[in-house]
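Final report, closing paragraph on structural work. Over the funding period we assembled a curated collection of sequence-structure pairs, and we close with a single example.
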Amino acid sequence: MKRILKKIVRPLLWVIVLLVCLVPPLFLASPAGYFPLLVFLFLSLISGLYLLGLKKSLAWDEGGETAFCRRGDQQNFGLVLHNKGPLVFPSLRVTLSLSDLFGGTDSTLDTEMTLTPFEQREVDMDVRFTHVGQYTVSVKRMNIGDLMGIFSREGGGGAQHEVQVMPQIWKIRSFPLSHQVNNENPMARQSSDRDGMDYIGVREYEQGDPIKSIHWKLSAHTSSYMTKQMVTIGMTGLGVILDLYSSEEDPDVRMDLYDGLVEGACSLCSYALANHLDHELYYFDRDGLRKSASFQKESDMDRMVMDLPKIISDKKYYPVEQLLHRSAVDLYGKNNVALVTSEVTTETIELITRIHLRGRYPSVLLVLPKGLTELEEAEAVAPLRSLDSYKIPWYSYSDPKMLEGGKVE
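Its predicted structure, as stored:
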Protein backbone atom coordinates (compact mmCIF):
# COMPACT_ATOMS: atom_id res chain seq x y z
CA MET A 1 0.00 0.00 0.00
CA LYS A 2 2.81 2.40 0.92
CA ARG A 3 4.58 1.63 -2.36
CA ILE A 4 1.41 2.34 -4.34
CA LEU A 5 0.99 5.70 -2.59
CA LYS A 6 4.56 6.62 -3.48
CA LYS A 7 3.83 5.89 -7.13
CA ILE A 8 0.76 8.13 -7.07
CA VAL A 9 2.30 11.07 -5.18
CA ARG A 10 4.96 11.99 -7.77
CA PRO A 11 2.67 12.19 -10.84
CA LEU A 12 0.08 14.01 -8.71
CA LEU A 13 2.72 16.55 -7.65
CA TRP A 14 3.68 17.10 -11.28
CA VAL A 15 0.04 17.75 -12.21
CA ILE A 16 -0.33 20.22 -9.34
CA VAL A 17 2.77 22.18 -10.45
CA LEU A 18 1.47 22.16 -14.03
CA LEU A 19 -1.86 23.61 -12.89
CA VAL A 20 -0.05 26.32 -10.94
CA CYS A 21 1.95 27.23 -14.05
CA LEU A 22 -1.32 27.61 -15.97
CA VAL A 23 -2.54 30.35 -13.61
CA PRO A 24 -0.37 33.25 -14.98
CA PRO A 25 -1.59 32.90 -18.61
CA LEU A 26 -5.17 33.15 -17.36
CA PHE A 27 -4.57 36.51 -15.62
CA LEU A 28 -1.81 38.07 -17.74
CA ALA A 29 -2.76 39.29 -21.21
CA SER A 30 0.82 39.00 -22.50
CA PRO A 31 3.08 36.23 -23.81
CA ALA A 32 5.22 36.58 -20.67
CA GLY A 33 2.48 34.84 -18.73
CA TYR A 34 3.34 31.60 -20.56
CA PHE A 35 7.01 31.73 -19.54
CA PRO A 36 6.64 29.68 -16.26
CA LEU A 37 4.62 27.03 -18.10
CA LEU A 38 7.15 26.76 -20.96
CA VAL A 39 10.06 26.56 -18.52
CA PHE A 40 8.35 23.85 -16.51
CA LEU A 41 7.52 21.78 -19.62
CA PHE A 42 11.08 22.23 -20.94
CA LEU A 43 12.60 21.10 -17.63
CA SER A 44 10.20 18.14 -17.53
CA LEU A 45 11.32 17.13 -21.03
CA ILE A 46 15.01 17.45 -20.15
CA SER A 47 14.43 15.51 -16.90
CA GLY A 48 12.60 12.74 -18.76
CA LEU A 49 15.35 12.41 -21.39
CA TYR A 50 17.96 12.47 -18.62
CA LEU A 51 16.10 9.64 -16.90
CA LEU A 52 16.21 7.51 -20.05
CA GLY A 53 19.97 8.06 -20.26
CA LEU A 54 20.43 7.06 -16.63
CA LYS A 55 18.75 3.71 -17.11
CA LYS A 56 21.12 2.84 -19.95
CA SER A 57 24.14 3.87 -17.86
CA LEU A 58 23.43 1.51 -14.95
CA ALA A 59 24.87 -1.99 -14.70
CA TRP A 60 25.28 -4.51 -11.89
CA ASP A 61 26.70 -7.96 -11.32
CA GLU A 62 24.48 -10.73 -12.59
CA GLY A 63 24.84 -13.20 -9.76
CA GLY A 64 27.53 -15.37 -8.26
CA GLU A 65 28.39 -18.85 -7.05
CA THR A 66 26.21 -20.69 -4.56
CA ALA A 67 27.05 -19.75 -0.99
CA PHE A 68 26.85 -22.18 1.93
CA CYS A 69 26.06 -21.48 5.58
CA ARG A 70 24.48 -23.08 8.64
CA ARG A 71 20.94 -22.42 9.78
CA GLY A 72 20.95 -19.39 12.06
CA ASP A 73 24.22 -18.03 10.62
CA GLN A 74 24.50 -14.63 8.95
CA GLN A 75 25.51 -14.42 5.31
CA ASN A 76 26.66 -11.29 3.47
CA PHE A 77 25.20 -10.65 0.03
CA GLY A 78 27.21 -8.12 -2.03
CA LEU A 79 25.88 -6.31 -5.10
CA VAL A 80 28.23 -4.19 -7.22
CA LEU A 81 26.56 -1.22 -8.99
CA HIS A 82 28.39 0.54 -11.82
CA ASN A 83 27.56 3.91 -13.43
CA LYS A 84 29.02 3.45 -16.91
CA GLY A 85 28.16 6.96 -18.13
CA PRO A 86 29.01 10.63 -17.43
CA LEU A 87 25.62 11.34 -15.85
CA VAL A 88 24.91 11.71 -12.14
CA PHE A 89 22.28 9.49 -10.52
CA PRO A 90 20.44 11.91 -8.19
CA SER A 91 18.35 9.13 -6.66
CA LEU A 92 18.78 5.37 -6.92
CA ARG A 93 16.80 2.96 -4.77
CA VAL A 94 17.81 -0.72 -4.76
CA THR A 95 15.43 -3.34 -3.34
CA LEU A 96 17.01 -6.68 -2.47
CA SER A 97 14.77 -9.70 -1.89
CA LEU A 98 15.25 -12.96 0.00
CA SER A 99 13.08 -15.90 -1.06
CA ASP A 100 11.95 -18.55 1.37
CA LEU A 101 12.03 -22.33 0.99
CA PHE A 102 8.75 -22.37 -0.99
CA GLY A 103 9.56 -19.49 -3.33
CA GLY A 104 7.74 -16.73 -1.44
CA THR A 105 9.38 -13.48 -0.35
CA ASP A 106 10.85 -13.89 3.11
CA SER A 107 12.20 -10.34 3.49
CA THR A 108 13.32 -7.26 1.52
CA LEU A 109 15.85 -4.49 2.09
CA ASP A 110 15.69 -1.03 0.49
CA THR A 111 18.88 1.01 0.04
CA GLU A 112 18.83 4.56 -1.41
CA MET A 113 21.95 6.26 -2.78
CA THR A 114 23.43 8.58 -5.42
CA LEU A 115 26.04 7.67 -8.02
CA THR A 116 28.59 10.07 -9.52
CA PRO A 117 29.81 9.65 -13.12
CA PHE A 118 31.61 6.33 -13.68
CA GLU A 119 31.34 5.46 -9.99
CA GLN A 120 31.29 1.84 -8.83
CA ARG A 121 29.67 1.05 -5.50
CA GLU A 122 29.04 -2.14 -3.53
CA VAL A 123 25.79 -2.68 -1.65
CA ASP A 124 25.87 -5.21 1.21
CA MET A 125 22.92 -7.06 2.66
CA ASP A 126 23.49 -9.07 5.83
CA VAL A 127 20.91 -11.85 6.02
CA ARG A 128 20.35 -14.34 8.82
CA PHE A 129 18.94 -17.59 7.45
CA THR A 130 16.49 -19.18 9.87
CA HIS A 131 15.54 -22.32 7.94
CA VAL A 132 17.28 -25.21 6.22
CA GLY A 133 17.06 -25.34 2.44
CA GLN A 134 18.02 -23.50 -0.74
CA TYR A 135 17.31 -19.78 -0.90
CA THR A 136 17.68 -17.05 -3.49
CA VAL A 137 18.93 -13.55 -2.76
CA SER A 138 18.29 -11.24 -5.69
CA VAL A 139 17.68 -7.67 -6.85
CA LYS A 140 13.91 -7.32 -6.82
CA ARG A 141 13.88 -3.89 -8.52
CA MET A 142 15.92 -0.78 -9.30
CA ASN A 143 14.15 2.57 -8.96
CA ILE A 144 15.90 5.51 -10.69
CA GLY A 145 14.81 9.08 -9.93
CA ASP A 146 15.00 12.07 -12.33
CA LEU A 147 16.61 15.48 -11.85
CA MET A 148 13.40 17.14 -10.69
CA GLY A 149 12.55 14.39 -8.24
CA ILE A 150 9.14 13.91 -9.82
CA PHE A 151 9.52 11.01 -12.25
CA SER A 152 11.17 7.65 -11.83
CA ARG A 153 11.77 4.49 -13.81
CA GLU A 154 11.70 1.02 -12.37
CA GLY A 155 13.98 -1.70 -13.65
CA GLY A 156 13.53 -5.44 -13.36
CA GLY A 157 15.38 -7.80 -11.06
CA GLY A 158 18.69 -9.51 -11.52
CA ALA A 159 21.97 -10.30 -9.75
CA GLN A 160 20.61 -13.56 -8.37
CA HIS A 161 22.64 -15.46 -5.77
CA GLU A 162 21.86 -18.92 -4.46
CA VAL A 163 22.40 -19.76 -0.80
CA GLN A 164 22.31 -23.35 0.49
CA VAL A 165 21.48 -23.36 4.19
CA MET A 166 22.75 -26.47 5.96
CA PRO A 167 21.30 -27.91 9.18
CA GLN A 168 22.68 -27.40 12.64
CA ILE A 169 23.86 -30.70 14.11
CA TRP A 170 23.02 -31.04 17.79
CA LYS A 171 25.00 -33.22 20.15
CA ILE A 172 22.68 -35.78 21.75
CA ARG A 173 24.05 -36.95 25.10
CA SER A 174 22.41 -40.39 25.10
CA PHE A 175 19.99 -42.42 23.02
CA PRO A 176 18.33 -45.78 23.81
CA LEU A 177 20.17 -48.38 21.75
CA SER A 178 20.58 -52.14 21.97
CA HIS A 179 23.78 -53.90 20.97
CA GLN A 180 22.17 -57.34 20.96
CA VAL A 181 21.93 -59.38 17.78
CA ASN A 182 18.76 -61.39 17.13
CA ASN A 183 18.45 -65.05 17.96
CA GLU A 184 15.44 -67.05 16.82
CA ASN A 185 12.85 -64.50 15.80
CA PRO A 186 9.58 -64.40 17.83
CA MET A 187 7.70 -63.96 14.56
CA ALA A 188 8.61 -67.54 13.63
CA ARG A 189 6.09 -68.53 16.27
CA GLN A 190 3.33 -66.29 14.92
CA SER A 191 0.92 -66.72 12.06
CA SER A 192 2.14 -63.98 9.75
CA ASP A 193 4.37 -63.55 6.73
CA ARG A 194 7.97 -64.62 7.15
CA ASP A 195 9.53 -62.29 4.60
CA GLY A 196 13.03 -61.36 5.54
CA MET A 197 13.61 -64.48 7.67
CA ASP A 198 16.36 -66.93 7.02
CA TYR A 199 15.92 -70.70 7.38
CA ILE A 200 18.71 -72.12 9.57
CA GLY A 201 17.39 -75.54 10.60
CA VAL A 202 14.66 -77.29 12.56
CA ARG A 203 13.71 -77.95 16.14
CA GLU A 204 11.00 -79.95 17.88
CA TYR A 205 7.49 -78.54 17.71
CA GLU A 206 6.45 -76.36 20.66
CA GLN A 207 2.97 -75.27 21.61
CA GLY A 208 2.10 -72.05 19.84
CA ASP A 209 4.08 -72.71 16.66
CA PRO A 210 1.95 -71.95 13.56
CA ILE A 211 1.00 -74.88 11.35
CA LYS A 212 2.67 -73.30 8.31
CA SER A 213 6.07 -73.43 10.07
CA ILE A 214 5.93 -77.25 10.47
CA HIS A 215 8.39 -79.17 8.33
CA TRP A 216 5.97 -81.88 7.12
CA LYS A 217 8.40 -84.09 5.23
CA LEU A 218 10.85 -84.28 8.11
CA SER A 219 8.01 -84.77 10.60
CA ALA A 220 6.86 -87.82 8.61
CA HIS A 221 10.32 -89.41 8.92
CA THR A 222 10.82 -88.61 12.61
CA SER A 223 7.30 -89.54 13.73
CA SER A 224 7.11 -86.23 15.62
CA TYR A 225 6.35 -82.71 14.55
CA MET A 226 9.38 -80.62 13.61
CA THR A 227 9.29 -76.82 13.21
CA LYS A 228 11.39 -74.77 10.80
CA GLN A 229 13.72 -72.48 12.72
CA MET A 230 13.73 -68.96 11.29
CA VAL A 231 15.95 -65.98 12.10
CA THR A 232 16.56 -62.48 10.85
CA ILE A 233 20.21 -61.62 10.72
CA GLY A 234 20.20 -58.28 12.48
CA MET A 235 23.37 -56.20 12.47
CA THR A 236 24.43 -54.04 15.36
CA GLY A 237 24.03 -50.38 14.55
CA LEU A 238 21.42 -47.71 13.92
CA GLY A 239 19.11 -47.21 10.96
CA VAL A 240 17.56 -43.73 10.77
CA ILE A 241 14.39 -43.24 8.71
CA LEU A 242 13.61 -39.66 7.65
CA ASP A 243 9.94 -38.92 6.93
CA LEU A 244 9.46 -35.51 5.28
CA TYR A 245 5.68 -35.77 4.93
CA SER A 246 3.49 -33.14 6.58
CA SER A 247 -0.19 -32.29 6.24
CA GLU A 248 0.41 -28.73 7.50
CA GLU A 249 -0.45 -26.04 4.94
CA ASP A 250 1.07 -22.95 6.59
CA PRO A 251 4.51 -22.33 4.95
CA ASP A 252 6.07 -21.05 8.18
CA VAL A 253 4.96 -24.15 10.11
CA ARG A 254 6.21 -26.43 7.35
CA MET A 255 9.63 -24.76 7.34
CA ASP A 256 9.88 -25.17 11.13
CA LEU A 257 8.96 -28.85 10.82
CA TYR A 258 11.50 -29.30 8.02
CA ASP A 259 14.24 -27.91 10.27
CA GLY A 260 13.25 -30.28 13.09
CA LEU A 261 13.11 -33.33 10.83
CA VAL A 262 16.38 -32.80 8.98
CA GLU A 263 18.34 -31.72 12.06
CA GLY A 264 16.87 -34.56 14.13
CA ALA A 265 17.98 -37.16 11.55
CA CYS A 266 21.44 -35.61 11.17
CA SER A 267 21.88 -35.38 14.95
CA LEU A 268 21.10 -39.10 15.30
CA CYS A 269 23.67 -39.95 12.63
CA SER A 270 26.16 -37.68 14.39
CA TYR A 271 25.47 -39.54 17.66
CA ALA A 272 26.18 -42.83 15.88
CA LEU A 273 29.44 -41.41 14.49
CA ALA A 274 30.55 -40.14 17.90
CA ASN A 275 29.88 -43.57 19.43
CA HIS A 276 31.52 -45.50 16.56
CA LEU A 277 28.24 -47.20 15.60
CA ASP A 278 27.51 -48.59 12.19
CA HIS A 279 24.63 -46.46 10.88
CA GLU A 280 22.57 -45.74 7.79
CA LEU A 281 20.06 -43.02 6.87
CA TYR A 282 17.07 -43.97 4.71
CA TYR A 283 15.17 -41.28 2.79
CA PHE A 284 13.54 -40.32 -0.52
CA ASP A 285 15.41 -37.89 -2.77
CA ARG A 286 13.96 -35.05 -4.85
CA ASP A 287 12.99 -37.47 -7.62
CA GLY A 288 11.13 -39.77 -5.22
CA LEU A 289 13.85 -42.43 -5.37
CA ARG A 290 14.55 -44.48 -2.26
CA LYS A 291 18.06 -43.75 -1.02
CA SER A 292 20.33 -44.74 1.84
CA ALA A 293 23.49 -43.07 3.08
CA SER A 294 26.13 -43.61 5.73
CA PHE A 295 28.68 -41.01 6.78
CA GLN A 296 32.37 -41.01 7.62
CA LYS A 297 32.24 -37.47 9.03
CA GLU A 298 29.60 -34.83 9.78
CA SER A 299 30.43 -32.77 6.71
CA ASP A 300 29.29 -35.70 4.53
CA MET A 301 25.72 -34.99 5.69
CA ASP A 302 25.70 -31.68 3.82
CA ARG A 303 25.75 -33.43 0.44
CA MET A 304 22.83 -35.60 1.55
CA VAL A 305 20.81 -32.53 2.63
CA MET A 306 21.21 -31.02 -0.84
CA ASP A 307 19.61 -34.19 -2.22
CA LEU A 308 16.49 -33.89 -0.05
CA PRO A 309 13.12 -32.64 -1.30
CA LYS A 310 11.10 -29.98 0.50
CA ILE A 311 8.35 -30.87 2.95
CA ILE A 312 6.13 -33.41 1.21
CA SER A 313 2.36 -32.87 1.18
CA ASP A 314 1.45 -36.02 -0.77
CA LYS A 315 2.53 -39.42 0.57
CA LYS A 316 1.79 -41.03 -2.78
CA TYR A 317 5.25 -40.30 -4.18
CA TYR A 318 7.21 -40.55 -0.92
CA PRO A 319 5.69 -43.45 1.06
CA VAL A 320 7.76 -43.68 4.22
CA GLU A 321 5.87 -46.89 5.02
CA GLN A 322 8.05 -48.57 2.38
CA LEU A 323 11.13 -47.62 4.36
CA LEU A 324 9.59 -48.88 7.60
CA HIS A 325 8.49 -52.14 5.99
CA ARG A 326 11.99 -52.67 4.61
CA SER A 327 13.43 -52.14 8.09
CA ALA A 328 11.04 -54.76 9.44
CA VAL A 329 11.87 -57.49 6.91
CA ASP A 330 15.41 -56.71 5.78
CA LEU A 331 17.63 -59.72 6.47
CA TYR A 332 20.68 -57.60 7.20
CA GLY A 333 19.02 -54.49 8.59
CA LYS A 334 20.26 -52.58 11.62
CA ASN A 335 19.01 -53.91 14.95
CA ASN A 336 18.11 -50.34 16.05
CA VAL A 337 15.61 -48.39 13.92
CA ALA A 338 14.80 -44.72 14.63
CA LEU A 339 11.96 -42.97 12.80
CA VAL A 340 12.08 -39.16 12.58
CA THR A 341 8.64 -37.86 11.59
CA SER A 342 6.07 -35.11 12.11
CA GLU A 343 3.01 -37.27 11.39
CA VAL A 344 2.06 -40.43 13.28
CA THR A 345 -0.68 -42.62 11.83
CA THR A 346 -2.20 -45.94 12.84
CA GLU A 347 -0.17 -47.59 10.08
CA THR A 348 3.00 -46.03 11.45
CA ILE A 349 2.32 -47.45 14.91
CA GLU A 350 1.57 -50.88 13.45
CA LEU A 351 4.82 -50.94 11.49
CA ILE A 352 6.88 -49.75 14.47
CA THR A 353 5.29 -52.49 16.58
CA ARG A 354 5.99 -55.02 13.86
CA ILE A 355 9.68 -54.06 13.84
CA HIS A 356 9.70 -54.59 17.61
CA LEU A 357 8.04 -58.01 17.35
CA ARG A 358 10.67 -59.09 14.85
CA GLY A 359 13.30 -58.73 17.53
CA ARG A 360 14.61 -55.30 16.61
CA TYR A 361 14.64 -52.13 18.66
CA PRO A 362 12.63 -49.26 17.16
CA SER A 363 12.22 -45.72 18.49
CA VAL A 364 10.36 -42.60 17.32
CA LEU A 365 11.31 -38.92 17.26
CA LEU A 366 8.19 -36.81 16.70
CA VAL A 367 8.60 -33.20 15.55
CA LEU A 368 5.75 -30.95 16.71
CA PRO A 369 4.71 -27.53 15.35
CA LYS A 370 5.86 -24.64 17.50
CA GLY A 371 3.42 -22.84 19.79
CA LEU A 372 1.10 -25.77 20.59
CA THR A 373 -0.94 -25.58 23.78
CA GLU A 374 -0.61 -28.38 26.35
CA LEU A 375 -3.88 -29.89 25.13
CA GLU A 376 -2.83 -29.76 21.46
CA GLU A 377 0.54 -31.32 22.30
CA ALA A 378 -1.15 -34.09 24.28
CA GLU A 379 -3.41 -34.85 21.30
CA ALA A 380 -0.44 -34.91 18.93
CA VAL A 381 1.54 -37.45 20.97
CA ALA A 382 -1.50 -39.57 21.98
CA PRO A 383 -0.94 -42.22 19.25
CA LEU A 384 2.57 -42.82 20.58
CA ARG A 385 1.26 -43.73 24.03
CA SER A 386 0.33 -47.17 22.69
CA LEU A 387 4.07 -47.86 22.25
CA ASP A 388 4.60 -47.62 26.00
CA SER A 389 3.10 -51.07 26.57
CA TYR A 390 5.83 -52.53 24.31
CA LYS A 391 8.48 -50.38 26.03
CA ILE A 392 9.29 -48.75 22.68
CA PRO A 393 10.98 -45.39 23.39
CA TRP A 394 9.72 -42.18 21.79
CA TYR A 395 10.55 -38.51 22.13
CA SER A 396 8.81 -35.31 20.96
CA TYR A 397 10.21 -31.82 20.39
CA SER A 398 9.26 -28.62 18.56
CA ASP A 399 12.68 -26.97 18.51
CA PRO A 400 15.61 -29.18 17.40
CA LYS A 401 17.82 -27.26 19.82
CA MET A 402 16.10 -29.33 22.54
CA LEU A 403 18.24 -32.26 21.33
CA GLU A 404 21.45 -30.50 22.33
CA GLY A 405 23.00 -32.26 25.31
CA GLY A 406 19.74 -34.07 25.92
CA LYS A 407 18.90 -37.59 26.87
CA VAL A 408 16.46 -38.91 24.29
CA GLU A 409 14.27 -41.59 25.80
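The CA atoms of residues 145 and 152 lie 4 Å apart. Confidence is low (pLDDT under 50) at residues 182-196. We thank the funder for supporting this effort.
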